[in-house]
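#lab-general

N.A. 3:47 PM
ok so I finally got the sequence cleaned up, no stray characters, all 382 residues accounted for. can someone with queue access submit it? mine expired

B.Y. 3:52 PM
send it over

N.A. 3:53 PM
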Amino acid sequence: MGRNRVSVSKGLVAVVGVGIVVGAVAVLHKTDKSKAQIDAGKVADASSQPKPEAEKKPAPKNTGQIALPGSAKALITQTPGSEPAKPSTGTPGGAAAPATPTAAVPQTPAPMVPRPAPVPNNADPAVSAKALADGKAQIDAGQLLAGRTILNEALTGGQFTNADAQAAKDLIAQANEVLIFSPRRFPEDPFQSAYNIQPGDRPVRFAYKFDTTWEFIARVNGIKDARRLRQGQTLKIIKGPFHAVVSKTTFMVDLYLGSPGDKGSLYVRSFPCGLGRQGSTPTGTWMLQPQGKLKNPKWWGTADEPAREAGDPLNPIGKFWMGLNGTEGDAVGKEGFGIHGTIDPDSMGKEMSHGCIRLVNDNVEQLYEVLIDGKSTVIVKP
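B.Y. 4:20 PM
back already:
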């Protein structure tokens, strides 16, 4: 079990990086009982020997942490495979009381968890093929909204075989490059709206009314500088909140508008991801932690790697962090997990984190822009 100290500042939650992130963590120091010293075959009096200086316990391996603004609530970071950690009874200011010396207990590595098999699909191949062909024909003819509607209804209704479902996702994502991610407006699209800039408008405020972020509105409308907004200007708005579904089988993050898979929800696009070692990313439903989003987190390092400042291109957390709170399934009660970037793009499709969900920086930036803390959910499936 690894325990780290996290710096605390105003209002936001402190988090621990690469795999499992937590706030205001106490550091335990190992104290070993003194032993008699042997000199030339004789037992020396231990009390006559000079007392060694307090031994500092090295930072735990394979555990990073990032400095976030946040509360002083003490949490414990847990390395996958270790026993559950308990909160420290810290003293004022976040320092921990000295630990009572205990005998070291060897940790048994967690067993390798086999990758879950794909869920069988009983869709009628003929129905699946027709829906895919009809949707593709509409998109090829430039009828993007009509084609997306055919494909999305069949997808959320479970009408596609596994192979056709992937082809349908590719076509929907292609259509969404224009329908969602371009400035072109489609008034008949139920997921879109328009907003006219009013005197004294603040972008963050009107974005919040639509359960989205100003950064995403700016991306969609091709706006580089909010100071250039003018009164009466009309902006394309995609109404949120967005939600995400993570598949541990395929190592993919699927982005949705509306409750994923429910009638009326919309598949948007997918991103490859990396997951926790030995299956340590808990399945279940997570809520994006309120005030749990951070740009350019600082990483405090491990025994194996040095600390990295915010913005350092060698910071292994990458450029973005989104904390998660477990609400259903195995995720219930779990804290310290999150979605973050990485400087190791080769880790996509692999189990290399300490339980967190990692994406390459360009992709995690897009998730950061659309997911809303306190409203967006992340469902992790086998």
